[in-house]
Amino acid sequence: MISLQHLSLRREQSLILDDVSLEMKQGENWVILGRNGSGKTTLLEMMTGYLFPSKGSVEVLGYKFGQCDVREVRKEIGYIGPSLMEKLSLSDPVWEVVATGAYAYLRFYQAIPQSVQDQALKLLDDMNLSELAYHPFGTLSQGERKKAMLARCLIAEPKLLIMDEPCAGLDLYEREKMLAEIDKLKQRNVAVVYVTHHVEEIVPLFTHVALIRDGKLAGAGPKEEVLTREMLMDTFDIPVDVEWDSGRPWIKIRPGGTSI
Ligand SMILES: Nc1ncnc2c1ncn2[C@@H]1O[C@H](COP(=O)(O)OP(=O)(O)OP(=O)(O)O)[C@@H](O)[C@H]1O
């Protein structure tokens, strides 16, 4: 599904990514976990073809970047990140914002086909947002907006869904609601790559984890093998314990402050 081979990215004097290789196979859903500034978003931008590596190769959904039209690849990729939400119209009804995803528009300037409206309403219903479907997008809470953004991605039926910290800024209640929707993606035929700093967001949907530290891959593989106390302490530079509950890992900070 995604093959990253020996990726390095240099910007001026600093090496932002340093020889990162990752193989994400069909049927796997990956989390990329790491501290602030470790290179996670940079890695996602390479997967979506917005950034090209100084060295190495990127293959996504069978397309080898550099030998294909990345705009074609992007049609098969859904993306949820901080930048897009700011560009959408706050005054348009929620269902219409969702419907724009079918065409990758920011806004409609022509009549919207009934079938697309029906699809948008169905997706909002799936996410328990039916009651808000005709409200202006700008009146939604942050959590509701993020769920609407997920619906907007899904209307295009992507093969790959890339999410950059979709739960950032959500309170516990809204985050759990959003995570429940993300976990439900296993009912759909879509592969997910998810960036976060927070271990407890690794819901059962996710099968594999890549740990990034200072632009290098610090570990990658099935989540139970990667989310060990030792590897997490190494990634986050803080003494921790990991406990698994209901298929999710939870972190406890061990006494001893922020140094190991
Ligand atoms: N165009 C650029 N020029 C120079 N440095 C850059 C550039 N883009 C990113 N960086 C640096 O590369 C590093 C990795 O950035 P990136 O946004 O990928 O990290 P991240 O892991 O996603 O961080 P966060 O979790 O805080 O969003 C950071 O130190 C950042 O300052």
How are the SSEs placed, and which strands pair?
Elements: E1 2-11, E2 14-24, E3 30-34, H1 40-47, E4 55-60, E5 63-64, H2 70-74, E6 77-80, H3 82-85, H4 94-100, H5 114-126, H6 142-154, E7 160-164, H7 172-183, E8 191-196, E9 208-213, E10 216-222, H8 223-226, H9 229-236, E11 240-245, E12 248-253
Parallel strand pairs: 3-8, 3-9, 6-7, 7-8
Antiparallel strand pairs: 1-2, 1-4, 4-5, 9-10, 11-12
Helix pairs in contact: 4-5, 4-6, 6-7
The structure holds adenosine-5'-triphosphate.
The site of adenosine-5'-triphosphate has 11 residues, from helix 1.
In short:
This is ATP-binding cassette domain-containing protein. The chain has a domain at 82-157.
Detailed description of the structure:
The protein is of the alpha/beta class. It has helices at residues 40-47, 70-74, 82-85, 94-100, 114-126, 142-154, 172-183, 223-226, 229-236; strands spanning 2-11, 14-24, 30-34, 55-60, 63-64, 77-80, 160-164, 191-196, 208-213, 216-222, 240-245, 248-253. The protein has a domain at 82-157. The protein binds adenosine-5'-triphosphate.
